[in-house]
Each structure stands twice: as C-alpha cells, then as structure tokens.
Recover the amino acids of this structure.
C-alpha cells in the first residue's frame, strides 16, 4: 500500500505479509458489500454460526483470511468483522486490531436495496478508530460516461 501526499510525496509504503493479509480482507469486504454475486466462488468456505451470523474463510492465491458476517431479520448485511486486517500508519509498524464495516439505513436505489450508510473502524484497545464514514446518495448502472471525464 502506497500513500502519497497531494499525489506526489510518498508518506507510506507498506508491504509484506501483514499488508497482504490486510488487502485480502479489503478485497473480501468489497465483494460482500458491493459485489455479492462473487460470493458463490469456490475460494470461499462458509460456516453458519446462527440464524443471523456466518463465518467465511476466503482464499486468494496462497493467502487466506476469515471474517464474520452479521445479518438482520430481512437478510441485510449489517456488519463485517475480521481479525486479519492490520493497521499500519508508517509502512513499518503493524497493529492487529479487529476491523469492521457496519452497514445501516437500507434504501431502494433504482430497484436494488442497498445500505446507504457505512463506516470503517479499527477497534483499538480503549477507543475505536473510525477512519471513514460513507453515505450512499445515488446509484447509476451501466453509465457510458462520467461527469467531468472527456472521451
């Protein structure tokens, strides 16, 4: 993972086994939140924990991670928690905290029911670190062009 300030000055260059695990968690989280059709893959093993909770083991190449997914009575995903996503601010020091992406406020977007709110959280000892909050306002499918982008 490379983080550049103003797109020019490298401030973080994290790599190694911890970052590989962390990015594999990110891939699986994205699959669960925005591409659920990908979840029928043979690279995922599912285990039912109760009526509203499943544990998943996702393998990408030689890297495997696990996550617990929580659902409400309507079958909507309400949280994703993994213990395999490491936090790294300087590219050298890694901390292994539980990482979650709670989802809420499901709404209809062009005929598809989606969570309109989400956060990304590291559950650090003593205090959670919420480093992102998202609100989905609109969804458009199969766009041919994007505002501000010239073809």
């Amino acid at each position: 993972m490379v983080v550049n300030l103003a797109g020019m000055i490298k401030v973080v260059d994290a790599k190694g086994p911890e970052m590989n695990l962390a990015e594999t968690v990110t891939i699986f989280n994205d699959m669960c939140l925005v591409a659920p059709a990908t979840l029928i893959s043979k690279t995922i093993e599912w285990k039912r924990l109760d009526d509203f909770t499943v544990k998943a083991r996702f393998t990408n190449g030689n890297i495997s991670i696990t996550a617990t997914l929580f659902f409400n009575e309507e079958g909507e995903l309400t949280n994703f928690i993994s213990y395999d996503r490491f936090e790294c601010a300087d590219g050298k020091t890694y901390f292994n905290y539980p990482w979650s992406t709670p989802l809420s406020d499901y709404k209809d977007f062009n005929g598809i029911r989606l969570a309109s709110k989400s956060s990304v959280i590291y559950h650090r000892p003593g205090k959670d670190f919420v480093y992102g909050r998202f609100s989905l306002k609109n969804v458009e499918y199969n766009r041919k062009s994007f505002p501000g982008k010239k073809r």
Q: What stands out?
A: Residues 17-34 form the longest helix (18 residues). The mean pLDDT is 88. The chain has one helix and twelve strands.
